[in-house]
């Protein structure tokens, strides 16, 4: 990787510098648009004590769920437990610290962190346990709670296409939390299905400008379906 060229040749290089007790922000929703190979590399590295920020924690045996198996995650900041039985088990046993956050609030926490905004007020969660211990203010006769922004030591993101400079396009619903996560990492690593030469991407179609991206790697993806329903 040299100059504006963000490409790296291995997953070891992609996550170089990730160590114990860091905060990792991960894109994806369920197992849609997740950086599955970067997650697998975190598992291989064996780092422990991680705080992971993501909409949820994958499923049993895939996605972020594999990091729960090896007890690599100390704290999970997420919106829901989902289809992950191990996540539920570790939450209920107290083995895993979990901070449940409404999806829109979590998305705005990432966006605000990437924009350098330290905190914001939202009505979501007022009058519920979400608001416990948080500052409350009234605007135009309505109560709002103060939520702090989120940033991470690393952000791991899944894109569709990127160029050498790190400009990224996401595909359909795989966009989800990925563009927000990409802005909020001190080091942002994006894995994509295809890397093209500079100038090949339509500038009007780029979702994440390369200024936010530190490393790009091309991978192959399993693209599992979380739950399949068919006619009997």
TrEMBL record:
<protein>
    <recommendedName>
        <fullName>3-oxoadipate CoA-transferase</fullName>
        <ecNumber>2.8.3.6</ecNumber>
    </recommendedName>
</protein>
<dbReference type="Pfam" id="PF01144">
    <property type="entry name" value="CoA_trans"/>
</dbReference>
<keyword id="KW-0808">Transferase</keyword>
<dbReference type="InterPro" id="IPR012792">
    <property type="entry name" value="3-oxoacid_CoA-transf_A"/>
</dbReference>
<dbReference type="InterPro" id="IPR037171">
    <property type="entry name" value="NagB/RpiA_transferase-like"/>
</dbReference>
<dbReference type="GO" id="GO:0016740">
    <property type="term" value="F:transferase activity"/>
</dbReference>
<comment type="pathway">
    <text>Aromatic compound metabolism; beta-ketoadipate pathway; acetyl-CoA and succinyl-CoA from 3-oxoadipate: step 1/2.</text>
</comment>
<dbReference type="InterPro" id="IPR004165">
    <property type="entry name" value="CoA_trans_fam_I"/>
</dbReference>
């Amino acid at each position: 990787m040299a100059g504006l060229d963000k490409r790296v040749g291995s997953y070891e290089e992609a996550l170089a510098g990730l160590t114990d007790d860091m905060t990792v922000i991960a894109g994806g929703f369920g197992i849609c648009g997740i950086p599955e190979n970067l997650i697998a590399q975190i598992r291989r590295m064996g780092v422990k004590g991680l705080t992971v920020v993501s909409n949820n924690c994958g499923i049993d045996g895939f996605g972020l769920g594999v990091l729960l198996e090896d007890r690599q995650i100390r704290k999970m900041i997420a919106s829901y437990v989902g289809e992950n039985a191990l996540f539920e088990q570790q939450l209920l046993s107290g083995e895993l610290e979990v901070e449940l956050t409404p999806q829109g609030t979590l998305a705005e926490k990432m966006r605000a962190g990437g924009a350098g905004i330290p905190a914001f007020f939202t009505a979501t969660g007022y009058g519920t346990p979400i608001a416990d211990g948080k500052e409350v203010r009234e605007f135009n006769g309505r109560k709002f709670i103060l939520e702090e922004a989120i940033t991470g030591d690393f952000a791991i993101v899944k894109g569709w296409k990127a160029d050498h400079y790190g400009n990224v396009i996401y595909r359909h619903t795989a966009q989800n939390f990925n563009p927000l996560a990409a802005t909020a990492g001190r080091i942002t690593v994006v894995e994509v299905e295809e890397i093209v030469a500079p100038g090949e991407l339509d500038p009007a179609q780029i979702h994440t400008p390369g200024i936010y991206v530190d490393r790009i790697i091309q991978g192959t993806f399993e693209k599992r379906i979380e739950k399949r329903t068919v006619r009997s």
